[in-house]
């Protein structure tokens, strides 16, 4: 396949589009613009079977502890188990627990949205501030942004994730403490950034209410660590459960999704779950050859591990999906950015590409030069909608014309003879053509997937996200890595916790390397100078 050009594959087989596309209820997946033939797909399906993808899928849905290094189940699928079938975990059916948590979310969101939850001065809540980072921020914020069209603006939802004080200061500046409800979202309730922001929020509130008692009226928590949340000062009744069998990056379906439900209403939040459930059903019931998450995973393995692509772009052509690539970065790179197998064996093959992206139209005026003519091939997922939820006359057609044109151009390219013929037809002299032609050649043969939704909706978005979640799951199985832990974030966190002590006492350890030591000393001396 390394020498095959997709132009030839398309001219040899007029059925490529119908053969290599999958129609799901909420979206069409066209994967024909990949460097594949029937034979390639057959080999990749064999690889999936050799890796026992189906058996591992059963293990996940059956609550086995497939997160082996943390000895936990991986059951975010239970959060959107909309037909409420029993899901067993260690001999216990957890579906009733999930239903109870959803009922608590429902009651809470109605109370707040109907103005029945009152602040310390008896005023209704108008603003929600979600304090959380990583999976406790990206999922809810990406979904809130994506479904803005569906918000009735009963409350305004804001997000604080960065420990840089600028963010919380900017968010709180225009708000009235009497009318703000904080959601402290943290599975562990130990994350330094979140705890720091939450303490600042408490101080902001109490500097207005002059009473610690007001915390109970203005703070709720979402956590698997009820003890820490209560120790922080949050009423037990105001703590929403999440469980250790829900990974942070897969948690938006849980009470971590509270800001989503507050913004669009609980019924529409359930539609997000419905969309995800639809994909779970497809994933569990569809033969691998027609299984969208399986195909996407195998194509990513094909492009990265076999064809050598080192990154993959997520390019939404829908303004509402402007945070999708940020969400996908955590989902994929925190899951599969690893280099040892389940058994701890060193891996000597590339696992997953780095994930990056931007709104497609903005990208066309920023980095598409690279996509078309650099010598690094970047497979890309193009995501768009047939209908816009905000029809402004004459815009959507232009947007979608670019959407379709770019994947065609990336695939077909334009060769030197075509460039020369075009320049000659425009009347350019041979000297100019000789000079410019090599620079205008587009090699093409750059793989893309097209995911075309009917329109962005709570349900179609839920399906899109779940599609990527299950793709990431299959990738991990095929790559033989544990997709569910994240040991790689521990070292940096640990060193930061030590350095923050050195900075607060101005005592720099001699054990640091000379760069770190030099930087820390420079920082402390510069800070001292500016203090004087
Ligand atoms: O980045 C590490 C991580 O543990 C993520 O997996 C998680 O989503 C994030 O930090 C926040 O963790 P918590 O929800 O426990 O505050």
From TrEMBL:
Record keyword Cytoplasm present = yes
**Keywords of the record:** Cytoplasm, Gluconeogenesis, Glycolysis, Isomerase
Q: Catalytic residues?
A: 334, 365, 493
Q: Does the keyword Methyltransferase apply?
A: no
**Which pathway, metabolic or otherwise, does it act in?**
Carbohydrate degradation; glycolysis; D-glyceraldehyde 3-phosphate and glycerone phosphate from D-glucose: step 2/4; Carbohydrate biosynthesis; gluconeogenesis
Q: Which GO terms describe its molecular function?
A: glucose-6-phosphate isomerase activity
Its EC number(s): 5.3.1.9
Subcellular location per UniProt equals: Cytoplasm
Q: Give start-end ranges for the coiled-coil region(s).
A: none
Q: Where is the signal peptide?
A: none
Q: A Pfam family name for this chain?
A: PGI
What catalytic activity does the UniProt entry give for this protein? Answer: alpha-D-glucose 6-phosphate = beta-D-fructose 6-phosphate
Source organism's superkingdom?
Bacteria
Task of the protein = Catalyzes the reversible isomerization of glucose-6-phosphate to fructose-6-phosphate.
User: Which family is annotated?
Assistant: Belongs to the GPI family.
Enumerate the NCBIfam families for this protein. Answer: PRK00179.1 (NF001211)
Entry protein name: Glucose-6-phosphate isomerase
């Amino acid at each position: 396949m390394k020498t095959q050009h997709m132009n030839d594959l398309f001219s040899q087989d007029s059925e490529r589009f119908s053969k290599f596309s999958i129609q799901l209820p909420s979206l069409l997946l066209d994967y024909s613009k990949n460097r594949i033939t029937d034979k390639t797909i057959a080999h990749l399906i064999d690889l999936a079977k050799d890796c026992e993808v189906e058996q591992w899928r059963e293990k996940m849905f059956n609550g086995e502890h497939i997160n082996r290094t943390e000895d936990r189940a991986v059951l975010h699928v239970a959060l959107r188990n909309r037909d409420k079938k029993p899901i067993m975990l260690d001999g216990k059916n957890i579906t009733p627990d999930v239903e109870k948590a959803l009922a608590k979310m429902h009651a809470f969101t109605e109370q707040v949205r109907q103005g029945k939850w009152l602040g310390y001065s008896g005023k209704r809540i108008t603003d929600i501030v979600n304090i959380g980072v990583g999976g406790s921020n990206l999922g809810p914020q990406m979904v809130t942004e994506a479904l803005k069209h569906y918000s009735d603006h009963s409350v305004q939802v804001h997000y604080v994730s960065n420990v840089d004080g600028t963010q919380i200061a900017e968010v709180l500046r225009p708000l009235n403490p009497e009318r703000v409800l904080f959601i402290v979202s943290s599975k562990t309730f130990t994350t330094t950034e979140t705890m720091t922001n939450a303490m600042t929020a408490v101080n902001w509130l109490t500097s207005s209410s002059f009473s610690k008692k007001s915390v109970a009226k203005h703070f709720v928590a979402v956590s698997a660590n009820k003890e820490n949340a209560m120790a922080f000062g949050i009423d037990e009744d105001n703590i929403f459960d999440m469980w250790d069998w829900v990974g942070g990056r897969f948690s938006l379906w849980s009470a971590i999704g509270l800001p989503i439900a507050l913004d669009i209403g609980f019924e529409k939040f359930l539609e997000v779950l419905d969309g995800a459930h639809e994909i779970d059903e497809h994933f569990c019931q569809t033969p691998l050859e027609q299984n969208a998450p399986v195909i996407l995973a195998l194509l990513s393995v094909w492009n990265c591990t076999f064809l050598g692509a080192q990154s993959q772009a997520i390019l939404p052509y829908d303004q509402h999906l402007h945070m999708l690539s940020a969400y996908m970065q955590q989902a994929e790179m925190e899951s599969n950015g690893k280099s040892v197998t389940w058994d701890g064996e060193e891996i000597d093959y590339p696992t997953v590409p780095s994930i990056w992206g931007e709104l497609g139209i903005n990208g066309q005026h920023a980095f598409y030069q690279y996509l078309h003519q650099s010598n690094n091939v970047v497979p890309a997922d193009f995501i768009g909608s047939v209908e816009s939820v905000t029809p402004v006359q004459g815009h959507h057609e232009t947007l979608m014309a670019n959407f379709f044109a770019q994947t065609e151009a990336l695939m077909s390219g334009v060769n030197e003879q075509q460039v020369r013929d075009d320049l000659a037809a425009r009347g350019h002299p041979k000297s100019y053509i000789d000079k410019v032609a090599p620079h205008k050649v587009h090699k093409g043969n750059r793989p893309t997937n097209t995911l075309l939704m009917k329109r962005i909706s709570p349900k179609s978005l839920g399906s899109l996200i779940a599609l990527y979640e299950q793709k990431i799951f299959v990738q991990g199985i095929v790559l033989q890595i544990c997709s569910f832990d994240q040991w790689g974030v521990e070292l940096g966190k640990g060193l930061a916790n030590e350095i923050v002590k050195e900075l607060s006492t101005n005592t720099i350890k001699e054990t640091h390397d000379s760069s770190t030591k030099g930087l820390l000393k420079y920082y402390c001396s510069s800070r001292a100078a500016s203090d004087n």
